[in-house]
Amino acid sequence: MLREIDRRVDWVLVGGRWTRMSIIGTNLSSEVLDRGNKGEDDNRVVIFMIPGNPGNEGFYADFGRRVVKSLLSREERMGDRKRHYLFYTVSHLNHVILPNELKNTGNHRHCGEWPRAIADIKHRSLFL
Predict the structure, then answer these.
(1) Which of 51, 68, 80, 84 is the most exposed place for a label (fewest CB within 10 A)?
(2) How far is residue 14 CA from its own chain's centroid?
(3) Domain containing 117: what range?
(4) Is the entire prediction scored with pTM above 0.90?
């Protein structure tokens, strides 16, 4: 029987800009989401998807669930050890409306110093 697939949406500061990201996976506990390398015992498989157009990460939620479900099905058929699949997606700059409570934090920088495409590329590299 396939494990349950969850989705979590968070706003994180990336390069001084609030960014909406989602994580889809089989276990979204803080222990699994910890970025530290667990060496030989690390059973996480991380997939990072950069959206096309539209650049809203929510548009790809169904796709992410299907990818994780496919990996779980394969794992079950092959009898592989159970892994934690984490499918990350991050929205493009200015493709998601910033909640009012984040606009007023004083932490958010607006785009403007780079041309649009370059800003998105730099933003992704900072996220990684």
Answers:
(1) 80
(2) 13
(3) 6-127
(4) no
